[in-house]
Amino acid sequence: MSVQKWAGRLPAVKSKADLVYDSLRAAIASGELRPGERINMEELGRTFGVSKIPVREAVKRLESENLLTSRAHAGVTVAEVDHDEIRGVFLARQAIEGLVARLAAQEGDATLVDDLSLIQEAMHRALEENGAQTLSRLNTDFHRRIAAASGYRVLVDVTEQLLLTIQRYRLVIPRDDADWRSVLEEHEIVIDSLRTGGPDTVAAAARAHTVSQSRREADAIH
After folding, report:
1. Ramachandran angles phi, psi of 75, nearest 5°
2. Contacts of 174 by beta carbon, 8 Å cutoff, 6+ apart
3. Under DSSP, is residue 143 helix (H, G, I), strand (E, B) or coil?
4. Which long-range contacts (CB under 8 A, 24 or more apart) does 125-133 make?
5. Please, what's the b/e burial string for 105-124 (b: 16 or more CB within 10 A of its CB; e: otherwise)?
6. For the chain, how big is the Rg over CA atoms in Å?
7. For residue 25, how far is the Cα from the chain centroid?
8. I need a surface site. Which of 151, 158, 178, 203 has the fewest CB within 10 A?
9. pLDDT digits (tens, 9 = 90+) for 113-152
10. Are 94 and 210 within 8 A, CB to CB?
């Protein structure tokens, strides 16, 4: 029996703690739970119909990811966005995005370009409709899809964590339309390089996109 790639494995049955974790993480990423917002543990248990133990397990996992913080007399709150740390996040993305793009090009995923093009089309529609939240979600999907094509679970996980941090940052300092148009133009260069270029060209296009984004973020912070 041949060994199957991680992406082909059947998903494990999720525990109650996993379900609470997934729901809280999604709410934090979308901004439904805002930075600094207090988490009522007892209310969470009632909402999900679970005991305190799964809730505590989920909260501990989110604390380890720096998405929740726990303080004496203050309880559990959604972690604030650290503007200084975001610089490190963008530096990490420059390295990771180039790597996953190169690997994706080498893997030769037959549906990758078509999938990215569909995301691009949806992003253009969202920009016309002033759908800021939709744009952010689709942008995450774009980069998540490239990471998945790399073939390495660890790179998917690292990419996911970096993207989540940036999504939370966007809640505090959102992009304007001009910024989103630049993102779309840079995405198109990445897609074109996947169509016609080799791994080096693809990696360079992905890195150039994240470098450009980092510069725009630095301007926004100041």
Report:
1. 75, -155
2. 132
3. helix
4. 127/177, 127/180, 127/181, 127/184, 132/174, 132/175, 133/30, 133/31
5. beeebeebeebbeebbebbe
6. 19
7. 11
8. 178
9. 999 999 999 999 999 988 777 888 899 999 999 999 999 9
10. yes
Instruction: Give the orientation angle of helix 52-64 with respect to helix 41-48, to 10 degrees.
Output: 120
Integer Cα distance of 67 and 69 in angstroms = 7
Question: What's the DSSP call for residue 67?
Answer: S
Q: Structure pTM?
A: 0.79
Decide: 60 and 78 in contact? Cβ < 8 Å. Answer: no
Residue 3 has pLDDT above 80, yes or no: no
How far apart CA 4 and CA 187 sit, in angstroms, is 31
- pLDDT digits over 38-52, tens only? 988 888 888 888 888
Q: Which token pair is 76? A: 């559990």
pLDDT value for 187: 97
pLDDT at 194: 96
> Closest Cα partner for 95 from 4, 197, 207?
207
Amino acid at residue number 54: P
Q: How far apart are CA 92 and CA 170, in angstroms?
A: 17
User: Nearest CA to 115 among 138, 85, 91?
Assistant: 138
Nearest residue to 77 via CA among 67, 92, 90 = 67
Q: How many CB atoms lie within 10 A of CB 145?
A: 17
State the DSSP string of 10-66: PPPPPPHHHHHHHHHHHHHHHTSS-TTPEE-HHHHHHHHT--HHHHHHHHHHHHHTT
Could you give the maximum distance between any two Cα atoms of the chain, in Å? 58
Residue 127: what residue type?
L
